[in-house]
Specification:
The chain is α/β, with parallel strands linked by helices. The protein has helices at about 20-30, 30-40, 45-50, 70-75, 115-120, 165-175, 195-205, 230-245, 260-270, 310-320, 335-345, 355, 360-375; strands at about 95, 100, 105, 130, 150, 155, 185-190, 210-215, 250-255, 275, 280-285, 285, 290-295, 300-305, 325-330, 350. The protein has one domain (about 30-55, about 85-395): Aldolase class I (TIM Barrel, Alpha-Beta Barrel). The chain starts with 19 loop residues before the first helix and ends in a 28-residue tail after the last helix. Flavin mononucleotide binds near residues 110, 133, 330, 351 and 354. Flavin mononucleotide binds near residues 111 and 352.
Amino acid sequence: MPWRRPKKIEQRAGSPRSSPEERLELANEGEEERETVELASLDGASIVEAATGQPERDERAPSIDIDRERLADAQFVTTALKDLPERGIDLEVDAARGLRLKNPVLTASGTFGQGLEYAEVIDVSRLGAIASKGTTRNPRPGNPQYRIAETPAGILNSIGLENPGAEEVARIYGPKWAKLRVPVIVNVAGYSVDDYVFVVGTLAHTPGVVAFELNVSCPNVKGGLLFGCDPLLAAEVTRAVRETTDMPIIVKLTPNAPDVVAVARAVEEAGADGLTAINTVLGMRIDTAKRRPILGTGSGGLSGPAIRPIAVHITYQVAQAVSIPIIGAGGVTSANDALEFLMAGASAVQVGTATFADPTAPIRVVEGLAAYVKERGIASIREIIGAALPSHHPARAMEDPPDA
Ligand SMILES: Cc1cc2nc3c(=O)[nH]c(=O)nc-3n(C[C@H](O)[C@H](O)[C@H](O)COP(=O)(O)O)c2cc1C
């Protein structure tokens, strides 16, 4: 997909609010000024942590800007039932054990705000579910600027899990999520097993929340190793969270692990109900004029179409190793991309970076999948899950994998 600046969205008649793109542009205008202040006051660096395996230093208590007036005032887009192209088409899936969704299209954590911002632009109730922004025990200010760099087929980010902390998230967003008419999966991050347990315990009874997605691309303060890179550590977190809640637990795999399949097996064994494959891939860009990395943290996480083949490959490998459902993520921009993941063994997909260029992308994917089921005359979308796996084509199971 050619990478392009986000298009401006037509403002709805009579709405004094600006679109997310306009707000993003406005925010970017102030970026240069804020940069000095933020560089001086911040030292959190979760992506660097991910790159170096070094746990972050002290978390400070930042003030996170939340536009409470806008939140109170938000008007959500709705669509009449009769106008839904997916109406009457069986798109239901089990995205994780105990998590049946009306369709397999979710939004990816960190790319869809807290859902509320986008609910003013698209009808989020047409989605299978949304994943919240990464939520930590304490508030986090996020990383120094720049936090985003464009690449030919995606973006590098080092947002650094900016969020107001679990208790504030429950207090501020819970009442809104309850009215959103779409299930919310809380994305959880932490630096110790206790952090994950705390966040899950804090949000388990929050209205609208149906499941937890554990972002294990964080270093463990005890040893510096990323939870998601080590099967034992990943299993330890999963087991502890399992003891905290009966709600579905989805573990989000990092492609930066030496053996992703081993991590997937270990967390399934420890009680995970599902997996998300994958989080971002580590990468870097250099500003050749300044002779410095572009991102404030040096390295960042690559997302978007560039990583789709990696994500499909991992989904395909993991699907053959576990029996819990997998949610595919990485560069989904169209229904055909989603079909690739489903045929590779995913039961659902997340749309992330694509929503920055086109906020309607997740809805387009729902409509495209509905059209596929209708045009092919198949009974449900579930029929194509795993259709490309060797188990569906026994002859192929005999073939040797390529060396490189
Ligand atoms: C700006 C940005 C912020 C992200 N924040 C989070 C996060 O807080 N927690 C998480 O688990 N993944 C986070 N991710 C990773 C995405 O959820 C997703 O796994 C990844 O981007 C691949 O999907 P995509 O190519 O469709 O974006 C973030 C990605 C981006 C681009």
